[in-house]
Amino acid sequence: MPLDEVGFRKYLKRGGRTERVQEEVVRIVRGFEEFLRTQRNNRTLDKAQPKDLEEFTKWVEHEPKGSAKTHIWALRYYFAFSGMKDIERLTSELREGRITRTPFKLAKFLGVKPDYVTKLASAGIRNADQMLKAGSTVKDRKTLSKETGVPLETILELVKMSDLSRIFGVKSIRARLYHDADVDTVEKMAQWDPKELGPMLIAFVERTRFNGIAPLPKELEFTVATARKLAKVVEY
């Protein structure tokens, strides 16, 4: 089945995508459609498989400095539009693996006292990656607390939020929300059903008047799915 461009553009427009973005997304989907036709045994878009997407990204990145990040981003819209859940999930995984992130600064976590951030900085700990490395075990956290004068409970709090920040999109407000709602480790997040986690967080925000909003269902699906794939790096 060929691309339903009219219906797809309407879908993109409903999602707030501009004309320029629509043009770029459609162009990339057309490119994938041509790739399927010429290099994947004349396969059509509606019959695309995860392996087809993997081969397409390799093909795009075959050129020196070639990157498929934009292609994966665009195709995710199409697979969501078409209800192709398995291959849509793969786009998230492939894009995640191609994003280079700057380590999140401890000072940007919501609710952290500046003087504690300063004391940790004096010990060479300024971001989430450094916090995880310095406080991954109970012994490490006790030693760090003694050396810096930062309370042990604050060290643990920062380690937990740093651990959660390994999940794409979980930073200042989200990390604090999950921590305070007792979904404070990657392992706990992985145990939740997104459909149950959403209502719990909404109730928590309303009950505590938390300074932020609860995540939408799609975000929670991605967050929980990512947590389930992450390796355990902290000893509690």
User: Based on helices, strands and strand pairing, what is the structural class?
Assistant: mainly alpha
- Secondary-structure element series: HHHHHHHHHHHHH
* Unreliable parts: none
Radius of gyration: 21 Å
Largest sheet: none
Number of strands: 0
Beta fraction: under 5%
End-to-end Cα distance = 52 Å
Broad shape: elongated
Count of structural domains: 2
Which percent range fits the helix content?
55-70%
Total helical segments: 13
**Mean of all residue-level pLDDT scores:** 93
Describe the protein's architecture and organization.
It is a single chain. The protein is an all-alpha fold. The chain folds into two domains: 5-96, no CATH class; 106-227, no CATH class. It contains 13 helices and no strands. Helix 2 (19-39) packs across helix 4. The relative contact order is 0.08. The model has no long low-confidence stretch (mean pLDDT 93).
